[in-house]
Design a protein that fits this description.
single chain, alpha+beta, three-stranded antiparallel β-sheet, six-stranded antiparallel β-sheet, 22 helices, 45% helix
Length: 666
């Protein structure tokens, strides 16, 4: 792809999502408690009113982020065959262990929570998966949150999480030394020239009006940290090809393994290849000839023949590419080994307010107007309470010498008002003034203030009493009822939660692809058992391995919420007590569900493992003794003569006696 096409895509993206970026900037200002317009602040200052911010949006969003932490989901591999004894089930268990280990080493939870925060505030969160050798010489798979505004995507995308996007562009500042070491000498000279430029951004970006990120004019190049950095654009895209897909036994590279599999009756190794239509026929004929020759040589084996190759013409195929661009040229372009983008998105609610472009919005945008109304009403109520604390006053003309001065004194919080001498004690003026209280009006203000405060969580369908645990009655609700109530509250955020679940499924497939591409057997032996996980260590480099498994996203069994519910179920049902009374050994894996510190759980697990092994050994000994007793002949009844050598065996029970006068059949 030419650099011109990249620039066209960048301009289209900037034009399509200009208004989305405006909304994102306002939403993150709200998140940072900057919730007043400059004009409103100046108007309040002129009137002597405070610009108060009583934020309700951030606690609600933090509660939603916390719910995805306590109910964290993880991606697992599941074989498409349901048999418990099949080898692929053990391979799936080993693969799940490797993915879980990679997530823990890479500290994915922090990056995912930050990206989910971007989803709730701006409508879109993004992450980047990469291989890093900074902390581990064998390589570590990192998952990095991409700051909002530093990445753009295909405006023609219509599916959640940009699943159908044809391209995405990531703008990033790269250290000079890293950039120079990543490219050749010609590109290095060009990069050094960019380092001396005053503004190293594209003309399309200079025309932009946004003060942030990929949509900005210069992305604040005056920062000191940018002086030794260069601005690069990483584009990922795919191109679709139509070719012939051939699936055949691997008789070319692994002929010996195929022959051994035929003799053993095990699964025959296969290979998948793609070829142009012009050469596909010849490839199929060559493979068929070799398979026929091997079938003739193995005709004496008890298993069936080697199957013929299968093929599918005009098979659609995506090839993914990654290219690096500067302002004026393309530096590098390579095909990616993964069958998906390494940039992962999490989207919130769709925004169809613009007819031509679909964008996204988060719950922050829903709460913005109620929050502004709440701030303004709170500021007005405080001004009323402080500036007019005494209600209205009816007075006679001669009571005050200076009415304007008396009005100011009446409005002050001190309550001191100066009257003419003798007017309050003059018997001719029985009632020189009358004080009208404002109890009814104050009650009305309190009611409106309560509505203003509750409007913010109501705009997103969340009850703060249930979701944030602020109600007094929450302590009297049982744990089961509280879990059900919180589950109902989570349903109001179904779309972001579904997108998060979909992201974790994508992340699981991409993570397994990274393991296949960058890890070797020696690296995996740090976490796997060479005996228990031998099948996975032998086959994890197979490119078609993931096609035989499904990536399932389920709640992590060791998440805080799941551990608490499981432990509560054990206590209510007496499950552990019933196991011990029945003599059934307690599985050591149950220690992972106890809400105790990790170190205590590990020690308790070792104790359970020892008891489990002893009980299991005793059960096996009992089973062997029972089998030996069943194989021994039954003992003769007491008083019966022992059978003589050569005598006929006694007749079976229920068999007719031998006929009289005839010798018994020997």
């Amino acid at each position: 792809m030419s650099h011109t096409k990249f620039k066209d895509r960048l301009r289209d993206m900037q034009s399509a999502y200009y208004e989305w970026m405006q909304e994102a900037i306002i939403n993150y200002r709200f998140w940072s408690l900057d919730q007043w317009d400059p004009e409103a602040r100046r108007a309040l200052a002129a009137e002597g009113r405070p610009a108060l911010t009583f934020d309700r949006t951030r606690p609600i969003l933090q509660a939603i982020i916390g719910s995805q932490i306590t109910n964290r989901y993880q991606a697992t591999l599941q074989p498409r065959e349901a048999s418990l004894n099949r080898p692929d089930r053990f391979i799936a268990q080993s693969g799940t262990t490797v993915m879980k280990w990679a997530q823990q080493v890479g500290d994915y939870e922090q990056s995912e929570s930050l990206a989910f925060q971007d989803t709730l505030v701006t409508g879109v969160g993004a992450l980047d998966m990469m291989i890093s050798f900074d902390t581990d010489p064998d390589g570590r798979i990192d998952l990095i949150r991409i700051p909002w505004g530093m990445i753009g995507w295909d405006p023609a995308s219509t599916q959640p999480n940009m699943l159908d996007a044809q391209y995405c562009i990531h703008m990033k500042w790269v250290d000079k030394e890293e950039a120079l070491n990543s490219f050749g000498e010609d590109e290095a000279e060009h990069l050094l020239g960019l380092m001396t430029a005053d503004d190293n951004t594209t003309p399309a970006i200079r025309e932009g009006r946004m003060p942030y990120g990929i949509f900005s004019k210069s992305d604040l190049p005056a920062y000191n940290r940018r002086r030794d950095q260069v601005l690069l654009f990483e584009e990922q895209c795919f191109e679709r090809y139509y070719s012939t897909r051939i699936i055949a036994p691997d008789v070319e590279e692994n002929r010996a393994q195929v022959e051994q599999a035929v003799r053993d009756g095990s699964t025959i190794p296969r290979v998948e290849m793609f070829a142009d239509k012009s050469v596909a026929t010849g490839v199929v004929k060559r493979l068929a000839a070799r398979i026929q020759s091997m079938n003739y040589a193995l005709s004496g084996t008890p298993s069936g023949p080697i199957p013929a190759p299968t093929y599918l013409e005009n098979f659609p195929r995506k090839v993914y590419y990654k290219s690096i661009h500067t302002n004026s040229e393309e530096l590098k372009r390579d095909a990616m080994p993964h069958r998906m983008f390494t940039k992962l998105f999490i989207t919130a609610f769709e925004d169809w307010s613009k007819e031509e472009v679909r964008s996204f919005m988060g719950p922050e945008r829903q709460m913005r107007d109620p929050q502004q109304y709440s701030n303004k009403f709170l500021s007005q109520a405080v001004h009323i309470f402080t500036a007019n604390p005494k209600g209205a006053l009816l007075y006679e003309k001669r009571l005050f010498s200076d009415v304007a001065k008396a009005g100011k004194q009446w409005a002050m919080a001190t309550g001191m008002i100066e009257a003419n001498d003798g007017m309050l004690s003059n018997p001719r003026m029985k009632e020189p003034f009358r004080h009208l209280t404002t109890t009814a009006s104050l009650r009305g203000i309190e009611t409106l203030l309560g509505l203003a405060v509750s409007a913010t969580p109501a705009s997103v369908g969340i009850s703060e009493a249930a979701f944030l645990g602020q109600a007094q009655d929450i302590r009297r609700i049982s744990g089961e009822a509280l879990s059900s109530l919180l589950g109902q509250q989570n349903k109001t955020q179904t779309i972001p939660m579904d997108s998060l679940r979909l992201y974790r499924k994508q992340m699981g497939r991409l993570l397994f692809s990274f393991v296949q591409e960058y890890f070797d057997e020696e690296t995996l032996l740090r976490i796997l058992d060479p005996e228990k996980d031998a099948l996975f260590l032998q086959s994890f480099k197979d490119e078609q391995l993931l096609d035989e498994y499904d990536v399932i996203v389920e709640e992590a069994p060791t998440s805080p919420n799941e551990k608490q519910q499981t432990f509560q179920l054990f206590m209510e049902t007496g499950f552990l007590t019933q196991l011990m009374q029945s003599g059934i050994p307690i599985p050591p894996a149950l220690a992972d569900f106890f809400p105790i510190p990790a170190e205590a759980a590990a020690q308790f697990k070792e104790v359970l493992q020892g008891a489990f092994d002893i009980q299991k050994l005793g059960m096996e000994l009992q089973k062997m003794q029972m089998q030996q007793q069943m194989q021994q002949p039954p003992a003769p009844p007491p008083g019966a003569a022992p059978p003589q050598e050569g005598a006929a065996p006694p007749p079976e029970q229920g068999a007719p006696p031998p006929p009289q006068g005839q010798p018994p059949v020997m």
